């Protein structure tokens, strides 16, 4: 892994004024130039761009799990205008337990698939090796058995393909205690699992995938924070996240399926 890899990525997507058109983003975040609350979409988009550049002329078939209001695809389309850069995907399917189909009609999904990730029989019926890239942003913490779901998801990815993930992060020493606590008070479809870098490394071995990126995202985040208008503040936080991924905050990673 290249420890400081995100520091070399372009930040123009976060700063694009077109992000103000994305549904489901609060106004105080839209007005910030480099909003940390949108880093999840930026991490995934930059990994998609890298993957497309590596593959050359072959656009990616993407499956996104846990689509909410379509912010990930909307962010990617807003960042990659026809004038600035060719989109790195050919198809983009959305997979969710309850996709708001009517609200997503204009987002740009090629197909919407309703699927419960903890329904093992339904998961097993999904086509194997259907995607070059699968994206799971802030999904696994909502599952009681994330590894079981990941085992099925890995089968959907083509050999040599990529799994891109993101979740809240917690130090390993606090993980079990915090997980027991949140499960006592969890609401339906709320957070029920706690994830640490150590756990992600364990999962990667169980899935037989190679970890290419495992980073934290920031030292401090506050909605509408004025320093988030400064590129140096963003890069400082990215450097901190690279050095200390176990710091409580957010984790982003990519796994490569062997060929």
Name the features.
259 residues; alpha/beta; seven-stranded mixed β-sheet
How is the main sheet built? Answer: 7 strands, mixed
CA(first)-CA(last) distance? 18 Å
Shape: globular
Q: What is the number of helical segments per DSSP (H or I, 4+ residues)?
A: 9
Task: Report on this structure.
Helix content is 34%, strand content 20%. The protein has helices spanning 12-15, 27-30, 39-55, 71-79, 120-124, 146-156, 172-185, 197-207, 231-243, and strands at 60-65, 89-96, 111-114, 131-137, 157-169, 210-216, 249-256. The protein starts with 11 loop residues before the first helix and ends with a strand. Helix 6 links the parallel strand 4 (131-137) and strand 5 (157-169). The protein is built from nine helices and seven strands; from the N terminus they run H-H-H-E-H-E-E-H-E-H-E-H-H-E-H-E. It has a seven-stranded mixed β-sheet, with helices on both faces. By secondary structure, the chain is an alpha/beta fold.
Topology:
Blueprint: H1 12-15, H2 27-30, H3 39-55, E1 60-65, H4 71-79, E2 89-96, E3 111-114, H5 120-124, E4 131-137, H6 146-156, E5 157-169, H7 172-185, H8 197-207, E6 210-216, H9 231-243, E7 249-256
Parallel strand pairs: 1-2, 1-4, 2-3, 4-5
Antiparallel strand pairs: 5-7, 6-7
Helix pairs in contact: 3-4
């Amino acid at each position: 892994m290249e420890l400081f890899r995100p520091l070399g990525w372009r930040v123009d997507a976060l700063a694009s004024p077109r992000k103000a058109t994305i549904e489901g983003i609060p106004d105080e975040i839209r007005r910030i130039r480099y909003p940390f609350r949108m880093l999840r979409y930026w991490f995934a988009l930059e990994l998609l761009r890298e993957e497309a550049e590596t593959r050359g002329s072959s656009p990616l078939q993407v499956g996104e799990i846990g689509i909410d209001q379509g912010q990930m695809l909307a962010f990617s389309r807003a960042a990659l205008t026809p004038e600035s850069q060719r989109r790195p995907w050919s198809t983009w399917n959305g997979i969710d337990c309850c996709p708001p189909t009517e609200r997503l009609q204009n987002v740009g999904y090629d197909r919407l698939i309703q699927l419960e990730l903890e329904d093992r029989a339904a998961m097993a019926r999904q086509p194997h090796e259907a995607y070059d890239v699968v994206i799971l942003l802030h999904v696994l913490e909502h599952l009681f058995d994330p590894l079981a779901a990941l085992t099925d998801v890995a089968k959907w990815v083509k050999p040599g393909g990529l799994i891109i993930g993101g979740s809240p992060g917690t130090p390993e020493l606090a993980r079990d205690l915090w997980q027991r606590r949140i499960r006592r008070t969890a609401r339906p479809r709320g957070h029920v699992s706690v994830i640490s870098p150590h756990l992600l490394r364990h999962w990667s071995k169980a899935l037989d995938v190679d970890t290419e990126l495992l980073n934290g995202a920031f030292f401090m985040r506050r909605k509408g924070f004025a320093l988030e208008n400064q590129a140096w503040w963003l890069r400082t936080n990215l450097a901190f996240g690279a050095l200390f991924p176990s710091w409580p905050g957010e984790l982003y990673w990519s796994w490569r399926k062997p060929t």
